[in-house]
Design brief:
Blueprint: H1 25-35, E1 41-47, H2 51-66, E2 70-76, H3 79-88, E3 95-98, H4 102-119, E4 123-125, H5 128-133, E5 137-138, H6 143-152
Parallel strand pairs: 1-2, 1-3, 3-4, 4-5
C-alpha cells in the first residue's frame, strides 16, 4: 500500500502474503501520553529517507499536530548523526519516539535511550527490545500472539 508492494490489505493482487504488525501512532502515543502527559515537543528518531519511517513520521506529525504537540524530525544517516542531531536539539526536546526502522533498530535505539537517560527525557519505542534496554514504554506487537491469530484466519 504505502510503499506500493500491495494494492490493499484485503488483496495484494500480486500473490504477496504476510502479516502486518502495524500499531497505529494513536495507539502508540496515547499509551505514552498516559504516563507522560506534558510533552510539547517530541523528537521522532528515524533513518533518513527510509520509506516506512517517512510514513510513520507523517502519521505522527498529523496526530500530534491535532494535539498541539510539535515534532522534531531527527532523520539520521548513521548512528553518529542521530546522536549529533539529538544533542543539537537538546533544549527543545521533551520526549523521544524511536521508530521501527533498520538504523534505529541496529544501534540508534541505544543512542536514543542513552540520550533520554542522560538528559531525563522519556523515550517511547515501537520495539519490545527497546523497552528491555530502558525505554519508558513501547506499545508493541507480541509476535507469538500475532502468529497464532493469523494461523486461525484462512484469508
Amino acid at each position: 500500500m504505502e510503499v506500493s508492494l500491495i494494492r490493499s490489505l484485503e488483496s495484494s493482487e500480486n500473490n504477496l502474503v504476510g502479516t502486518r504488525d502495524y500499531i497505529s501512532p494513536a495507539q502508540q502515543y496515547f499509551a505514552f501520553e498516559r504516563l507522560y502527559p506534558h510533552t510539547k515537543m517530541l523528537a521522532f528518531v528515524h533513518r533518513a529517507d527510509e520509506p516506512n519511517s517517512v510514513i510513520q513520521l507523517n502519521q505522527f506529525k498529523q496526530l500530534l499536530e491535532e494535539r498541539k504537540i510539535g515534532v522534531i524530525d531527527i532523520a539520521g544517516v548513521n548512528i553518529q548523526d542521530i546522536n549529533a542531531q539529538l544533542n543539537a536539539h537538546l533544549h527543545q526536546i521533551d520526549a523521544l519516539f524511536l521508530s521501527c526502522d533498520t538504523l534505529v533498530q541496529t544501534g540508534g535505539e541505544e543512542i536514543g535511550i542513552a540520550f533520554g537517560r542522560l538528559h531525563r527525557k522519556p523515550v517511547l519505542t515501537c520495539n519490545n527490545v527497546g523497552v528491555s534496554k530502558g525505554a519508558l514504554i513501547g506499545n508493541v506487537p507480541v509476535y507469538i500472539l500475532l502468529g497464532k491469530w493469523r494461523a486461525k484466519r484462512p484469508h
